[in-house]
C-alpha cells in the first residue's frame, strides 16, 4: 500500500475519538496501512512481571490509526490538504494539493541546517576543553621523570 504520509509529518485526525487532534507521525506501517501519531489513539497495556527484577504496571502507548483517517498538514500554508505527486529536479516528490508547495523539501532543508550547526559547534567545544586542560597543567607543575610527583616534593 502506498502511503502519502511519512515519518516526521504533521497530521490531523479526521475521524474517530481523537477527531481534530494534530500530532507528529512517529512510525508508518505500509503493510497494515497504519500510522502511529504522537498523542493520538492512546491504548492501555497491562504488564505482568515475568521475573523478580521486572516490574509490572499499566502503560499508556500510542496505537496505530488507519492512514485513511489522517491528513497531512502542509508546512507552508498550515492547512490540511491532500497529497499530489509531482516531479522536482528529476525526483518524485509529494506536493500540497492546495498551495502546490513541495512537502519533501522542508525536511531536507532542516536536516542540512542541523548538520551545519553540528559542524560549527564541535570545533568551538574542543577548543574550550583544550584551554581547560592547559589551565590544570599550569596550576600543578609535574615532573615527567618523577612519575607524577610535583616539583615541591
Model description:
It is a single chain. The protein is α+β, with helices and mostly antiparallel strands and 153 residues long. It is 23% helix and 29% strand. The protein has one helix at residues 105-139; strands spanning 10-13, 22-29, 34-37, 42-47, 57-62, 65-66, 70-72, 83-88, 91-96. A 5-stranded antiparallel sheet has the order 6-3-2-1-7, with no helix packed on it. β8 (83-88) and β9 form a beta hairpin. The radius of gyration is 26 Å and the shape is extended. The model has no long low-confidence stretch (mean pLDDT 81).
> Segments where pLDDT lies below 50 for 5+ residues?
none
Rounded to the nearest angstrom, the distance between the terminal CA atoms is: 77 Å
* Major β-sheet annotation: 5 strands, antiparallel
Q: Overall pLDDT, averaged?
A: 81
Q: Count every helix, treating DSSP H or I runs of 4 or more residues as helices.
A: 1
Strand content: 25-35%
CA-atom Rg in angstroms: 26 Å
Helical residue percent? Answer: 10-25%
Structural class: alpha+beta
Q: Any idea what the shape is?
A: extended
SSE pattern: EEEEEEEEEH
Q: How would you write the strand order of the largest sheet?
A: 6-3-2-1-7
Number of strands: 9
Amino acid at each position: 500500500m502506498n502511503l502519502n504520509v511519512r515519518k516526521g509529518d504533521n497530521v490531523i485526525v479526521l475521524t474517530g475519538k481523537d477527531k481534530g487532534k494534530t500530532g507528529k507521525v512517529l512510525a508508518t506501517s505500509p503493510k497494515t496501512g497504519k500510522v502511529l501519531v504522537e498523542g493520538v489513539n492512546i491504548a492501555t497495556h497491562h504488564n505482568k512481571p515475568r521475573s523478580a527484577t521486572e516490574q509490572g504496571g499499566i502503560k499508556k502507548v500510542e496505537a496505530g490509526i488507519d492512514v485513511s483517517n489522517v491528513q497531512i498538514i502542509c508546512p507552508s500554508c498550515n492547512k490540511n490538504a491532500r497529497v499530489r505527486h509531482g516531479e522536482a529536479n528529476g525526483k518524485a516528490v509529494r506536493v500540497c494539493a492546495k498551495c502546490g508547495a513541495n512537502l519533501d523539501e522542508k525536511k531536507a532543508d532542516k536536516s542540512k541546517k542541523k548538520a551545519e550547526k553540528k559542524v560549527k559547534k564541535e570545533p568551538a567545544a574542543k577548543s574550550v576543553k583544550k584551554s581547560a586542560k592547559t589551565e590544570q597543567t599550569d596550576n600543578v607543575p609535574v615532573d615527567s621523570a618523577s612519575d607524577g610527583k610535583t616539583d615541591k616534593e
